[in-house]
C-alpha cells in the first residue's frame, strides 16, 4: 500500500504542528519516524488514519484520498498500533483482537480463529480469555499488536511499539515487525530508540526521517554515515558511534 503526503499542514490548538510535510512510502517500504517530544509524530499518523483533519495538502492511501474513504475502507488499507491504548477493560484479550477484524464480512468463528492465530504469533495466546484490565502493561501491548495483525491491512502505523516491554520483549517485537515488513507490508514506525531498529533486519533498506519544526528535516538510510550527525542536530545532542558485533550503535551525549 503506497502512502503519499503532499504539503500537509496541520494546526492544533492554534499551533502549527506541520507546515508543508512531503512524504512518500511505496508498497513494501519501512520508514522510521524520529523527532523530539512535541514534534507531532503521533499527530501525523492520526492524519494518515483520517482521525485528524489537515488544514492544507493531501494524504493519499493507494489511489484514494483518506478523506474520501469510509471507516471500513480505511481499515482495509491501514492499521494502527497507538502509543497508549485505553478502554475495554472488561473485554477479554480475544474479544479485543476479534474486534479488529470488523472490516471483514465473515462468521464470528472465523474471526475468533484469526484472532487466536494473532495472539499466538505475538506470544500471548495464554491470556486470550483474560480481561484486558487484569493484564500487565507488556501483555496489553502484545494484545494491541495482535489486533494490528488480525486487521490484516497492508499499511501498518506503529507508535512506540516497545512501550511497557522488557528488553527481550522489545527485541522480539522489532523482529516481528521486520518479519511483517519482509512479508510485504508497508510500515511507518515511530520510535525514540534508534538502536532498536537494527533488530528489524535489512538495515540498509530501513529509512529514517527526522521531524522537527513542522517539517521533515532529513531522510537517510539507517546505515548512512551522516545519520549520527543528523540525529545529533535533531535532538540537540552529540551522538557517539560504537560497533557491537559488527553493527553500529549510537549513544547520545550532552554537549559540554
Commentary on this structure:
- It is built from 7 helices and 12 strands.
- It has 256 residues and is α/β, with parallel strands linked by helices.
- The strands form 3 sheets. It has a 6-stranded mixed beta sheet with strand order 6-7-8-3-9-10, with helices on both faces. A 4-stranded antiparallel beta sheet has the order 2-1-4-5, covered by helices on one side.
- The longest helix is centred in the C-terminal third of the chain and has 16 residues, at 167-182.
- The mean pLDDT is 94.
Observed structural traits:
256 residues; alpha/beta; 6-stranded mixed β-sheet
The whole-angstrom Rg is 18 Å
* Secondary-structure element pattern, one letter each: EEEHEEHEHHHEHEEEHEE
pLDDT < 50 runs, ≥5 residues: none
Q: What is the 3D shape?
A: globular
Indicate the proportion of strand residues: 25-35%
Please state how the strands of the largest beta sheet are arranged side by side.
6-7-8-3-9-10
The percentage helix is: 25-40%
The N- to C-terminal Cα distance equals 45 Å
Number of distinct beta strands: 12
Number of helices: 7
Structural class: alpha/beta
Largest sheet: 6 strands, mixed
Rounded mean pLDDT score: 94
